[in-house]
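tool_call: predict_structure(chain=1)
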Amino acid sequence: MNNSKRQFIEIENTTEETRSIIYDVFATYNIILQDHRRFPAFDMIQQEYNHLKLPILNDKDFGPKLKSELEQSLNVSFNDVIKTCEHDQIFMDLINFLER
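tool_result:
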């Protein structure tokens, strides 16, 4: 697959269900980064995907913990997800936060 044309819906080795979970999680973190008053959204996403151990944004190890959880629980390459988000220009607040 040509990485320059990859879209979120084409993340390698993922199902539609897995992409949906990642999308929901990333969207929630992105919303919270844009407006901290929206933190209750995190509680909702934790309840929805209670099988995931999602870190909170102010955890000093947020990035490594999120990477580990997605790779272990969903069997997806975190780097592929990040690259795809950057390509599609989605969840950029979260991507920038992770790169800090």
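agent: DSSP finds five helices and no strands in the chain. Proceeding to next step.
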